[in-house]
């Protein structure tokens, strides 16, 4: 597979990649209990491991959690935090918030915590001198690689961030310098929704790209007319 890396992508390969990007979903409600075969899970983790990282730091580790007891503890952390988060909203908005399903910790057959070891590679990691958070950015890219590869494999991924990080770190027995960057639920699904669940439930919609692309400096219109027209499509 790694021979001849300079050959152009075929039309099918390109459309497969874009399909994974556009049809990837955050999954909470549609998990099936079927286990993910080990070789498939290993492929997903290998895809994550091929993400770019600052100074080739590879700050990630992967904690595969199938223990129901551990997952129940994480669910408890979620429930405590979610109750606090609901307090951010009032009236109908709070009711809508409470009706949203924001995790699939027990319904999915496996959870995966992708961590960031902030000390990996020593004190001087190439490229991290000025922006110390680049290790966290790198780990986010590993998450996205896994998320896209999972979509191509027909596996749903749901990111759960409504968690107290210290309690999560303690539950997973993380060393001091290891940050629990992403807590993910993974499993085959009954369906992938055609649009984000938050959009389908009327919480928030995708913003028009024409409002998000600026020309040269913030707030300036794009002066390239062809680009401006292409963005409207
Ligand atoms: C860093 C981060 C953290 C979270 C999320 C995502 C990311 C990137 N998302 C998923 C998020 O709601 C979802 O990506 C958007 O609603 C867009 O939907 P699609 O991912 O396109 O389906 C998410 N979803 C959820 O139900 N509970 C959560 O705690 C979180 N947390």
UniProtKB/TrEMBL annotation:
It comes from the Bacteria. It catalyses: FMNH2 + O2 = dialurate + 5,6-dimethylbenzimidazole + D-erythrose 4-phosphate + H(+). One of its GO terms (molecular function) is 5,6-dimethylbenzimidazole synthase activity. One of its GO terms (biological process) is cobalamin biosynthetic process. The keyword Oxidoreductase applies. It is an enzyme of class 1 (oxidoreductase). Keywords: Flavoprotein, FMN, NAD, NADP, Nucleotide-binding, Oxidoreductase. Gene3D superfamilies: NADH Oxidase. Its EC number is 1.13.11.79. Residues 22-188 form the Nitroreductase domain. The keyword NADP applies. Belongs to the BluB family. Homooctamer. This is 5,6-dimethylbenzimidazole synthase. It comes from Marinobacter confluentis. The lineage of its organism: Bacteria, Pseudomonadati, Pseudomonadota, Gammaproteobacteria, Pseudomonadales.
